[in-house]
Design brief:
single chain, alpha/beta, Rossmann fold, Pantoate--beta-alanine Ligase, Chain: A,domain 2, 6-stranded parallel sheet, 3-stranded antiparallel sheet, 10 helices, 9 strands, binds adenosine monophosphate
Length: 282
């Protein structure tokens, strides 16, 4: 596996692949790899000729400096895993390499409603940082196919829009959420949960399943209340938001029949860790 710490070295290799008409699959990550990331890599390998993975903990998408400080880093384990997966190239830049002129955001996109609800409302500046880094990474890696996880449902919607706005010819493939046996969505942040917190975390997915089971059976407002109570009762958890929306536009639903296709998304604080999850309802 090639490991490229600089844009120049990466681009030289990418150019060579392009010349050979290789289909490039790209999986951007922030490292501390788990089975969720590996599932994206597996898809990228199956659907492309060459697979590039990036590991970059992007400071500009962290609205909370303590969250960035705490973010798990497992560089040597990650590299070993990627080699085992037979990834072709790892792009592993430093912050200075990615942002030689500083981290200030120069290009602001209009994502409309997509960027102002849920994560956009509660993590100010988060999606500006995500769009900034993903656009840079797409320019550097020039993929034909981009693989992202449905676990970050709103992020997928934003990046789809980014690709449109930038008029890039890239296919975005959204891959299903990989879960622990007890239903908890895999996340690099799960490693930060304490021994007493970890057993509480599956309540998030349980609540989303309950909500889905109540589809069209009881009022949406009542179903949301029950789901929030399931998460918060007798736990250390606090729901930041739990929203049912149009699965495409992310416009908030007040009633089940507001939209044909619904998604429920949530963010929950458990101790110092913020967890997100979602479920397709209809
Ligand atoms: P991250 O390293 O958290 O930025 O995630 C990198 C990519 O992996 C993103 O596209 C995430 O949506 C995806 N991802 C994270 N967790 C999971 C999971 N449990 N299942 C599937 N994809 C995931």
């Amino acid at each position: 596996m090639y490991i490229f710490p600089t844009v120049e070295s990466l681009q030289k290799w990418v150019k060579h692949q392009r010349k050979q008409n290789k289909i490039i699959g790209f999986v951007p990550t922030m490292g501390a790899l788990h089975a969720g990331h590996l599932s994206l890599i597996e898809q990228a390998k199956q659907q492309s000729d060459v697979c590039i993975v990036s590991i970059f903990v992007n400071p500009t998408q962290f609205n909370d400096p303590a969250d960035l400080e705490r973010y798990p880093r497992k560089d040597s384990e990650d590299i070993a895993q990627l080699k085992k997966q037979k990834v072709d190239a790892l792009f592993f830049p430093s912050v200075e390499e990615m942002y030689p002129e500083g981290t200030e955001i120069k290009k602001v996109y209009d994502f409309g409603n997509l960027a102002t609800v849920m994560e956009g409302e509660h993590r100010k500046g988060h999606f500006e940082g995500v769009a900034q880094v993903v656009n840079l990474l797409l320019e550097q890696t020039t993929p034909d196919k981009l693989f992202m996880g449905q676990k970050d449902y709103q992020q997928v919607a934003i990046i789809k829009q980014l690709i449109k706005l930038e008029e890039k010819n890239i296919e975005l493939i959204a891959c299903p959420t990989i879960r622990e046996i007890d239903g908890l969505a895999m996340s690099s942040r799960n490693a930060l949960l304490t021994e007493t917190e970890r057993p509480q975390a599956p309540k998030i997915q349980e609540a989303l399943q309950m909500l889905k089971a109540n589809y069209q059976k009881i009022l949406l407002t009542k179903a949301l209340k029950e789901a929030i109570a399931h998460i918060e009762t007798n736990t250390d958890m606090k729901v930041e938001y739990l929203t049912v929306s149009d699965a495409l536009t992310l416009e908030k639903a007040e009633k089940w029949d507001n939209f044909e296709n619904l998604v429920a998304c949530t963010a929950v604080h458990l101790g110092k860790v913020r967890l997100i999850d979602n479920i397709l309802i209809s």
